[in-house]
Amino acid sequence: MKSSLTWMQDYVNVDMTKDPQLFADVLTIAGVPVEQVVRWGDEIKGVYTGQITKIEKHPDADHLVICQLNMGSEMEPLQIVTGAPNVHEGDIVPVATHGSHLPGGVKIKKSKLRGVPSNGMLCSAHELGLDDSLLLPEERSGIWLLPKDTPLGVDAVDYLDLRDTVYEYELTPNRADCFSMIGLSREFAVLSGQKATFPDITVDECDTTIAGKVTVDIEDPELCNRYAARLLVNVKVGPSPLWMQQRLRKSGVRPINNIVDVTNYVMMELGIPMHAYDYDKVKDHHLIARRAKAGEVIKTLDDVDRSLTDQMLVIADPEKACCIGGIMGGLNSEVTNETTSVILECASFKGSSIRKTGRALGLRSEASAHFERGLDAEGCVQSLDRAAQLLKQIGAGDVAQGVVDVYPVKQAVTKIPFTAAQVSHFLGIDISEEKMISILETLEFGIEKDGDQLTAIVPSFRGDCTEMPDIAEEVARIYGYANIPSTRPMSRTDQATVSFEFSMREKISQILAACGLCETVTFSFMNTDSLKKLRFPETDPLYTAVPILNPITEEFPLMRTSLLPSLMDVLVRNQAVKNQSVAIYEVAPVYLPKALPITELPDQEYHVTGLLYGQRQTAEWPNKAERYDFYDVKGIVETLFAKLGIHADLEASDFTPLHPGVAAQYVKDGKVLARFGEVHPETIDSYDINGPVYIFEIHLNDILPLINLIPDYHKVAKFPAISRDLAFLAPVDTADAAIISVLKDKGGAFLEGVHLFDLYQGKQVPRGYKSMAYSLVFRSAEGTLTDQDIQAPIDAILKELKEKLNCELR
Amino acid sequence: MMKEKIDAIKAAVSEQLDKSEALQDIRDIRVKYLGKKGELTALMKELGKLSKEERPQVGQMVNTARSLIEDALQQRMAELKQQALQKKIESEKIDITLPGRKPLMGHEHILHQTAREMEEAFMRMGFSIVEGPDIESDYYNFQCLNFPDDHPARDMQDSMYITDKILLRTHTSPLESRTLQAHKPNEPFKIIAPGKVYRWDYDATHSPVFHQMEGMIVDKDIRFSDLKGMLEDFLREIFGPKTKVRFRASFFPFTEPSAEVDISCVMCGGKGCRVCSHTGWLEILGCGMTHPNVLRQNGYDPEKVTAFAFGMGIERIAMLKYGVDDLRLFYEDDMRFLKQF
Q1: Count of domains forming chain B
Q2: Which NCBIfam families does the UniProt record give (chain A) (predicted)?
C-alpha cells in the first residue's frame, strides 16, 4: 500500500513542513509500518507548460524537427529541437527550459543541434520521473501530451502534481482496513490528535433506473457473501482527469481509462475493489456468482486463456464466465472505447479463496491483494456510490437510479465488553477510562457505558478485533508502547530445569570441542545416493527415511537418518576450498519413522558423529606436519567415554562404511555403543577425496543410561613406585591388547599401571617380528617396594608371554 | 719479620685474585693460603716459636689478615658468580618472536555458543528449557496457535510438508501449545524452547533450516509491562547495558497485543548506517501477550491466567552480535569460519 500525502490532505491535516520521516516513524511504532518514504518531484526545477505552435523539418537531420513554443504571456516563446515522433502543432507539452533540473541530476542547457539553436527540451513522462510501469505502452516513448485545457507557461511540477511525498507501507495481515486512504487517514488522525473527514458521497442519478435492467444471483454465498451493482448509461470512455491519473500513479496504479481509473481510485480510497462490465456484452444483463466448472476456460484481460477449477469463483452471465471474481476480468465483457453502458460491480469475496485462486493461476492484481486480506462487506454500496459520484463528476456517463444489492447474510456486529481497570491491569499501566474512550472513538469504535462496564462496538472494517486484548492493543499502540513501563513478572515458578539429555548433549559437545574438533551445523536432510556412497546395503533400515513432499532442492528429498552424509558433504566443501585439515563433529537429531508412509510423528534421536581428515598438525614451527590416523579417532572416542564414565569392550567392527581392517567398536552387554575407524577406500573414491578419512558414530540413546559423571577416584599414593621398562620381540600380528592382558593378569597385586611406550619394526628386529616396549609401574599402598617384591611377577610375565604369545624379552 | 711475611701473603693474594677468572681459581687461592697446608696457616703454626709477648700481637695480625683475605675471596667469588650468571643469561637469549606452540583446540559452533549464551541468560531468570520434535503436526504448529485454516503460512509454498497433516515445524512456537498441554490447566510455568525450524525459502538471506528460541511465561497477573521489562533485561544482557530497546505494534496470530522489538544498531549505536538501513534500529524479535484463544485451545482459562510469549532467530542474534554478514556461512561449515569462534 502506498499513500500520497497531498491526497491524504483531503481527509486529514498533514504538516508538509515537517520531515515526513518523523511521522512515518510514529505510524511504524503504532503498528502501521512505513517501509519507505519516497519524495516525488524534489529535483525538478524550471519545467513549464508550452504549446507547440509550429513544427519544421531540421535542414540537416532527418530524425529531428524544430518546434516553436508558445510559453504563455509571461514568458518568451522558445525554439526547441526534438527527435520525438509523437508531437504535433497545437500539442501542449512539458518544456524543460534553459537551466532547468530533471530527476537523476540531469541539467538542461541551451545548445545547438546540428547547427540549429535549441533552448531546452520537450519532456516525456519518464523524463519527469514517472516509472514506465505507471504509463501505457504508447506513453512510455513519446513526449507527455497534456490536456488541451492546460494553461501555458505554468510550472509543470505544480500543474502535474509532481511534487509529493509518498509513504510505502508493509502492513500486517490483520489490518485490511489500512489498505485504503480512508483507513490510513484514521490512523493519521488518531496519532496526530485530529479527527479525519471523509468525502461527502451524494449520487446525482438520471432518469433511467436499474430495476429490471440488471439482475444478480449469488449461487455460492460462501465465496461471495455480497454482490452489489450499479448501472451507468451514456458512457463516454476516454482518459480520466490528470489529477486522478497522478493520484493513481502515486498509489502504484497505472491509469487506463476513466471507467477503470474510477474503480481503481475508489479501491485505493475506500479499500474495496470494483469491476466494470460492458453492459451489452453480458448476456441477459444477468450476473451470477458461482464456482467455475472444472476445466472451464476464460480469456482474461491480459489476453491469456485461464483454465479454472471448481475451487474458483467466477462472475458469469447465463452463458459464460465474464470475470474471475476478485482477480481479473474477462476479455469477453471488457469495457472498450465503444462501450455505452456499464455494469459496476462491488462485491465481497472470500479472501482465502481469492488467494488460493490467484496462486493457482499465477495471477495477482491490486484487486486480489485487497481481497486476500478480507474486506468489509458493509462498505460495498458506499463504494459503488462513491464511484458513481466520481464518474458523473468527471463526465464519464450518467448514473441510473438505484442499486442491485444481494446480501443474503448480513455481517454480524462484534461487541466487546471491558472495563478500564481490566485493560490497565492487563497492560501494566493506569490509563483513564476517558483516555481509552477517546482513543477508541477516534478509531470509530462505538462505546456503550454502564457504570464501570464498557462495551466497544467494533466497526465493520475492524474484523480483527474480537476480545478484550484487542481493545488493549488498540489503546496501547495509540497510547504508545514506549509509554508503558518496564516491569518484571511476578512469577510463582523460579526454578529453571533442563533435561538430562539436553545437559548431556552440552557436555558431550564440550568434551569433543576440548578434543580439538570443530562443531558443524548442517541441514537435516539427505538423499539415498549418499547412503549408497557410504556403502550401507540397500536393506539397511537407514533407507527408511521420511520423504518431504516439497523438498527445497532435489538434492535433499529426505529427512536424514544418519549424520554421516552431512559430515561427508562438509568434508567435500572444505576440500574444494583447499582446507588441509578437517576435524569436525555434530550432535544432532536423525528422524526415524516407525513405518512409511508415516501416519504419526517419527522418532527423533540424537547422534554424535565426528570426522577427521588431513593434517592433525600442520608444518608450522616448531611442529612437523602430522596426519590424522586411526589412533586419533580412537583416542577421541576413548576420551569421550572416559569423561562420561562409560566402560565398554573394544572389538573389530563390521560397520559397512569403514575399512574392514581399520574398523573398531565399543560394545557393552551385546550393544554397540560407538563405531569408529577409517572410511572405506571405495567411499573415499566415490566422494573424490584425497587421502584417508576417519569417522566415529555414537547413538546418544545407547550411551545415555551408561553415563556416570563421577570419576573413579583413587587416593593419591603415599609411597614411591618402582617402574620397569620391558621390551619384547613379538610376532608382527601380536595385538597390544593381548600383551597388556598378560601383563595385567600376571603383574600381581602391586602392578599399578602399564602402557606401551615404543613400537618398532625395521632393521633392528628380525623379519616377522616387532619390538614392543612397555612401561610397568608397581606400587604398594602399605610401604616402599623393593626389587625383590616385583621379581616374581616379572618372571611370571616373561614366562607367560613366551609360552602364550611367543614373545621374547629383548 | 712476621709482619713482612703477612704483608707479602696479602699482596700475593690480592695479585692473584685480580688475575682470577673462574670460581676454581678462588678455591685454589684459598687452599694455597688459607688451607691446612696454606701459607698463612703455616705462619700460624710458627707462632709457637715466638715469645710470649709477641705471640698475641702477631696472632692477632695473622687472624686479621686471614679474615681480610677471606673477605676478599668472598667478594671476588661473588663477582665471578655474578659474571658467570650474566654470561649464562646472555647466552640463553631466544627469539621471542618465533611462534608459540598452539595447543590443539576445538570450537563449538557459533550458533551453539550464541544459543547457550541466550539459554544461560534465561535460566538465570528462572526459565526452564524444553524441546520438541522438528517433524511436527499441523495441530501443534498451527491449529493450537490460533492460525486460521486458510492462513498463508499453511500453504505448501511457505512450509515443507511430510503429509497434509505433518510438516517440518515452521517455528519453535509449537512448544507453547505442547507445554501448555503438558501442564495441568492454569498451572504457571516459564519456558524457553531452542531448536531447528524450517521454511520453504532458500537464497542469500533465507535458509531452509535455521534456529529459533521460543519463550513463554504463564501465571496469574502477567502483564504487557512485564513482557517489556523482561525482554529489555534479556537484550541488554546479550547486547550490552547501553542497548536501547524499542517496541513496535505488530501482528501474530497467537499473541494480542503483539510487538516487534528493535534494538539500537550494534554497528553505529543508532546514528544510522548500512547495517540498519540508516534507521538506527535493528529488528530482533517478535513477542506479545498470548492470545486468549491459544490459552483456551490448550486447556487454560484466560480469565484466570495471562501469559506472554516471544520468539527470536538465533542466527539473527549471532549475526548482529558477531558481525557475520552472510547467513550461508553458518551452514557451509568452512573450517576457516568454524575456527574463529
Answers
A1: 2
A2: pheT_bact (TIGR00472), YtpR (NF045760)
CB burial class (10 A; 0-12, 13-18, 19+) of residue B336? exposed
Mark B111-124 as b/e (b = at least 16 C-beta within 10 Å): bbbbbebbbebbbe
Domain that holds residue B27: 2-91
Q: Is residue A141 predicted with pLDDT exceeding 90?
A: no
CA distance A333 to A345: 13
DSSP conformational letter for A580: S
Please give the grid coordinates belonging to residue B9: 701473603
Does B97 reside within a domain?
Answer: no
Q: Mind listing the pLDDT tens digit for each residue in A30-44?
A: 999 999 999 998 889
Q: What pLDDT band is residue A456 in, cutting at 50, 70 and 90?
A: very high
Model's pTM, two decimal places? 0.87
Return the ∠ at Cα A72 (arms to A67 and A73), rounded to 5°.
Answer: 130
Assign A199 a pLDDT band (cuts: 50, 70, 90). Answer: confident
Domains of chain A: 2-41+165-191 (3.30.56.10), 45-162 (2.40.50.140), 205-406 (3.50.40.10), 415-483 (3.30.56.10), 500-706 (3.30.930.10), 722-809 (3.30.70.380)
Q: Report CB contact under 8 Å: A481, B222.
A: no
Q: Give the minimum alpha-carbon distance from A519 to chain B in angstroms, rounded to a whole number.
A: 5
The Cα of B43 is separated from the nearest Cα of chain A by a number of Å equal to: 54
B99 vs A620: CB contact, 8 Å cut-off? yes
Clarify whether residues B192 and B320 are in a common domain: yes
The CB-side HSE value for A225 (13 A sphere, CA atoms) comes to: 15
Residue of A487, A496, A512 with shortest CB distance to B123: A496
Search chain B and give the residue with CA nearest A489. Answer: B226
**Cα–Cα distance list, A96 to A121, A150, A155 (Å):** 5, 16, 10
The percent of residues in chain B predicted with pLDDT above 70, rounded, is 99
Question: Which of A350, A364, A559, A601 is best to mutate for the B interface (most B CBs within 10 A)?
Answer: A601
Mean pLDDT of chain A: 94
Place of cell 466520481: A390
Looking at residue A649, its pLDDT comes to: 95
Same domain, yes or no, for B71 and B191?
no
Interface contact flag, B247 A481, Cβ < 8 Å = yes
Q: How far does A574 lie from chain B, in Å, by closest CA?
A: 6
Q: Give percent above pLDDT 90 in chain A.
A: 86
pLDDT digits (tens, 9 = 90+) for A62-88: 899 999 999 999 899 999 999 888 899
Which of the four pLDDT bands, split at 50, 70 and 90, describes residue B153? low
Residue B212's CATH number? 3.30.930.10
For residue A779, give the 3-state DSSP assignment: coil
Owner of C-alpha cell 536393506 = A539
Could you write out the three-class secondary structure of chain B? Answer: CHHHHHHHHHHHHHHHHHHCCCHHHHHHHHHHHHCCCCHHHHHHHHHHHCCCCHHHHHHHHHHHHHHHHHHHHHHHHHHHHHHHHHHHHHHCCCCCCCCCCCCCCCECCHHHHHHHHHHHHHHHCCCEECCCCCEEEHHHHCHHHCCCCCCHHHCCCCCCECCCCEEECCCCCHHHHHHHHHCCCCCCEEEEEEEEEECCCCECCECCEEEEEEEEEEECCCCHHHHHHHHHHHHHHHHCCCCCEEEEEEEECCEEEEEEEEEECCCCCCCCCCCCCCCCEEEEEEEEEECHHHHHHCCCCCCCCEEEEEEEEHHHHHHHHHCCCCCCHHHHCCHHHHCCC
Instruction: Find the closest chain B residue to A514 by CA distance.
Output: B106
- The minimal CB distance from B101 to the residues A31, A425, A622 is found for A622
Cα-Cα-Cα-Cα dihedral of B29, B33, B37, B39, to 10°?
Answer: 140
Q: Where are the alpha helices (DSSP H) in A30-76?
A: none
